[in-house]
Amino acid sequence: MGRIVLDTVTKSFGESQVIPPLDLTIEDGEFAVFVGPSGCGKSTLLRLIAGLEDTTSGKILIDGDDATQVPPSKRGLAMVFQSYALYPHMSVRKNIAFPMRMAKLDQSEIDARVEAAAKSLNLVDYLEQKPGQLSGGQRQRVAIGRAIVREPAAFLFDEPLSNLDAALRVGMRMEILELHKKLNTTMIYVTHDQVEAMTMADKIVVLRAGHIEQVGSPLELYRAPRNLFVAGFIGSPTMNLMTGAIAAEHDATTIGIRPEHISVSATEGPWKGRVGVSEHLGSDTFFHIHDTGFADAITVRADGEVDFKYGDTIHLTPRADVIHRFDAQGLRIA
Amino acid sequence: MAIVAHTSRFGKISRPILAWAVGLLFFFPIFWMVLTSFKTDADAVKPEFLIFFTPTLENYLNMTENYDYWRFAQNSVITSVFATLFTLAVGIPCAYAMAFNPSRGTKDILMWMLSTKMLPAAAVLYPMTFLTKSLGLFDTHFMIILVLSLINLPIVVWMLFTYFKEIPKDIIEAGKMDGVNTWGEVTEILIPLAWGGIASTALLCFIFCWNEAYWTVRLTTTEAATLSKLIEGNRAPEGLFFGRLSAVSTAAVGPIVVLGWFCQKQLVQGLTFGAVK
Ligand SMILES: Nc1ncnc2c1ncn2[C@@H]1O[C@H](COP(=O)(O)OP(=O)(O)OP(=O)(O)O)[C@@H](O)[C@H]1O
Ligand SMILES: [Mg+2]
Description:
The complex is a heterodimer.
Chain A: E1 4-13, E2 16-26, E3 31-35, H1 42-50, E4 57-62, E5 65-66, E6 77-80, H2 92-102, H3 107-120, H4 136-148, E7 154-158, H5 166-183, E8 186-191, H6 194-200, E9 203-208, E10 211-216, H7 218-223, H8 228-233, E11 240-243, H9 245-249, E12 254-257, E13 262-265, E14 271-280, E15 284-290, E16 298-303, E17 313-318, E18 324-326
Parallel strand pairs in A: 3-8, 3-9, 6-7, 7-8
Antiparallel strand pairs in A: 1-2, 1-4, 4-5, 9-10, 11-12, 12-18, 13-17, 14-15, 14-17, 15-16
Chain B: H1 2-37, H2 41-44, H3 58-66, H4 69-100, H5 106-115, H6 125-134, H7 141-165, H8 169-177, H9 182-193, H10 195-211, H11 214-218, H12 227-233, H13 242-262, H14 264-272
Helix pairs in contact in B: 1-13, 3-13, 4-7, 4-10, 4-12, 7-10, 8-9, 10-14, 12-13
The complex binds adenosine-5'-triphosphate (ATP) and magnesium ion.
């Protein structure tokens, strides 16, 4: 069980309030991702839940019990750190066994669980080595192993993959998701990478300066961003945002349209522009279009087969039914 | 390129020479002392017996017969060992708290602790003597252990603090998440990780205690008198008995030199303040 409720939680470091009053519920078994720009308070929020930081005010409930004053060691949560934070003086086996030894489990039970974890994480051959002898990916596996063996109420991850190279990151992402499906335990995952957030989350919590900008499933956020910040943050490449006359036409201050919702043609379309640089991904190509009469260049996604050269003239047609409209405060107009 | 190669070749030759020169410079007085300890008092002051003389064990025999070297040595061991243990028992939690749960005042406290070392010991000689005597603690092991602990505590805390600072905070926090209480954080994580640093700190503290002379000489007479007191006692009253004095001194520094020899690695690490990981 691992239902976590934050009830008007705040956090200040000295004079500066990093987390203004914040309410959030993470349901049992949910995969929640905190995402936001650097310094927005993601780690602080996670550490508040972990108990590694004290709340300035407000309450934290874990499975209905007030855990606000409970020390981290008694909250029954496991954490995986960005730096892995393995115990360098212990072998992999001892690292994984450590939380169980602290919980005073039977040695036979400990051995059994270490073996099982090592098997599922491909660490069997490394059990007697020290963390210093392992690669980044293996260390991360050990950290995850150490977290799973004690069967916590929830897992907390703070950017666990950001020290890994791109290919390994994708692999580990899948492994963590697999783990979540298998264990069905609450997981809270912090990242500044919106792709990670989109691909992993059941529920995304978008943070800015300690505020929750929006909470929802990846597709909810993608399809109906509540404000300009979320619209600009979720989605890659980012949504095209336009102001001025074109927005006024739609009774809005700002309109947004995603790159895949604009079709391209050599000859016809309401908007006209000049092709700038293009990014070929093979399956898709992203064109950056200039001189359209809008303030910023427009990004469009086209099929990988479509061929335009730098400097070509291009015509664009936006899909009218998926245009996002925002008012003067930057809030979505329904 | 040529210049670089030249300097490095020059460095290759000159550095060892320099190192040996400095080493010999520091070693010479000890060598001299050991040499003199095998001369008779009469020979010791004669220039013609500078290097070539008839060695004798007289001084050493004299020492164990007349002065009971072993009792002084025993007192030195007792006071140094217990003072070191006590200093660590206080210093480790103290440095731990300051390294991992610093508050706004932590830096000031560290500075203040160090500043107590700036007070000249002579300034508190009278109050200390008065206090110890009126409390009935003069010439007791307890008093010497306490004094040795207190004068070394600032340095010990500083050294330990520096070592503990090198341990990533994440590892301690991982420990907390893994269900370790404060005691466990210290015994399961901190001490094993900072073992090298703690050992070198302990060793240095022990050496300082062993060699301490100002207080051990002044706050003892017989019961708790250490080897420092023995050396001091051989100095004045009977004039310049260099041979005997050297023998006593050699016997006093001997154990610590042997200890230092065996713990060279730790010591160097402690003095260069590094490489915990
Ligand atoms: N111990 C601390 N003392 C003072 N300020 C802090 C402390 N920890 C964090 N902060 C401040 O709180 C804010 C949020 O920090 P936090 O580490 O939670 O950001 P983050 O969203 O995790 O950023 P990143 O993506 O860079 O990890 C920052 O402005 C930071 O300077
Ligand atoms: Mg962070």
